[in-house]
Amino acid sequence: MPAKTINDVVALCKRRGFIFTGSEIYGGLGGAYDYGPYGVELMKNIRNAWWNAMIYSRNDIEGLDAALISNRLLWKYSGHESSFSDPLVECKKCGARMRQDKMKDQKKCDNCGSTEITEPRAYQLMMGLSIGATADGIINAYLRPETATTTYVNFKNVLDAKPHKLPFGIAQIGKAFRNEISPRGFVFRMREFEQAEMQYFVRPEEDQKYFEMWKEIRRAWWINSLGIPAEKLRFTPHEKLAHYAKAAGDIEYAFPDGFDEVEGIHNRQDFDLGSHTKAQDEFKIHANVMENKDSTTKLSYSDPQTGENFIPYVIETAMGVNRAMLAVMLEAYTEETLQDGKSRIVLKLKPWLAPVKAAVIPLARNVPELLTIANDIENSLRKLNIGRIELENSGNIGKNYRRHDEIGTPVCITVDHQTLEDNTVTLRHRDTMKQERINIADVSKTVLDIINEK
């Protein structure tokens, strides 16, 4: 059966080295987590799957990696400095601070049940910085609260360096920071997190066509690349649109506690490029933007055929990489009762997402003949450059199988005494536990086929 609660996965993450509590030896820090040996591999594989789909499988999207710290003016004109906030309330009885729109009952404290709640006030979510030798503690820069805005201000740079006709996109994966009132749900809502966002620039009259197109493309990616069943996903339109949006909605996954957002799809019209462009009065900007007298660059597009110069609309896809990892682990987590009455936990990950692609296991510990062959197989698999390969030399084959079941290793290769006689090894498949004998010469191709299996 799949994970009943997030706690099932939390325990596995700690035990097997996926995710640890940040600063744990000093009591931790709310909303901060460290990714262990297998967590970094799974996150990397999710990033790679996204990058492959967005960049390598297309010819109309370019990559970007922008700075984490940005000039304060960037966040002034994006609207974040004045309006990027959550409604904060406090309990007068126990002192708990809560985000009002996420409370179970907005009239009662989630912590103690008291009805003595303060009126909500705006709580700034951006993390301000004081940088430079003469800053004197004054906030003069911010850690970015999302990657999108740093993409918009690089629109002209990318277009000049790599010319494209509309439509085209700019994709970016990176850290973002938000001073969340109440981080929750393990890695679902954190103060430091990772986003994978793509901004697709289109003609204003074609915006809805591409909005619908990206809704379908992104939903299909969650199914085909991450292995999330279609019935566990839904698209929910926003009931109340943000000030910049013409249309918006979320791809939601069925977490144990109910459906919640894992990726947003937004038609941001011309708000973003219009907000940051120089000479705003030269363009017919449809969105309501703040007057900008500080920008030094026109963030417009000149049609090479008609000569028309205008501000493109933006269709955004914005995925939380940490949330994607959590959804993938929850979906892959499986508890099975075996024929002998014992049980096992297995992560039935897509092979290309698995933190370890294959494990090589000598049947007996420290037997030179077996270890030499195992090392040769390990080295041949490493040359495939498919990811992490592990060699186990503990001598306990059962425990090794169970450990690799729990971290999602698709296949284990066992070198035993028969190997010395006929150059064959045992290939053990994770999901079915089926075992087969294959020739050592066929191991690399077989593993490669399993990893690339669709």
Provide a brief overview of the structure.
It is built from 13 helices and 24 strands. It has helices at 6-16, 37-56, 72-77, 80-83, 148-152, 155-161, 207-224, 271-276, 321-332, 368-382, 397-407, 417-422, 443-451, and strands at residues 19-21, 33-35, 61-64, 69-71, 85-90, 97-99, 121-124, 127-129, 141-143, 168-177, 192-202, 233-237, 247-255, 258-267, 301-302, 309-310, 313-320, 333-337, 343-347, 356-362, 388-391, 411-415, 424-429, 435-439.
Provide keyphrases for this structure:
alpha+beta, globular, 13 helices, seven-stranded mixed sheet, 454 residues, 2 domains, 24 strands, five-stranded mixed sheet, 29% helix, Rossmann fold, BirA Bifunctional Protein, domain 2
Explain the overall architecture.
The protein is of the alpha+beta class and 454 residues long. The protein folds into 2 domains: 6-70 and 145-328, BirA Bifunctional Protein, domain 2; 354-451, Rossmann fold. 29% of the residues lie in helices and 28% in strands. The strands form 7 sheets. A 7-stranded mixed sheet has the order 3-10-11-17-14-13-12. A 5-stranded mixed sheet has the order 21-20-22-23-24, sandwiched between helices. Strand 23 and strand 24 form a beta hairpin. The longest helix is centred in the first third of the chain and has 20 residues, at 37-56. It is globular. The two termini are 23 Å apart. The mean pLDDT is 91.
Major sheet attributes: 7 strands, mixed
Shape: globular
The parts where pLDDT drops under 50 for at least 5 residues are none
Reading off the top of the CATH hierarchy, the class of the largest domain is best stated as Alpha Beta
What is the count of DSSP helices, taking H or I runs of 4+ residues? 13
Q: Write down the domain tally.
A: 2
Radius of gyration: 26 Å
How helix-rich are the residues, as a percent range?
25-40%
Give the distance, in angstroms, between the N- and C-terminal Cα atoms.
23 Å
Structural class: alpha+beta
From the 3D structure, determine the CATH topology of the largest domain: BirA Bifunctional Protein, domain 2
The tally of beta strands, per DSSP, is 24
CATH-defined architecture of the largest domain: 2-Layer Sandwich
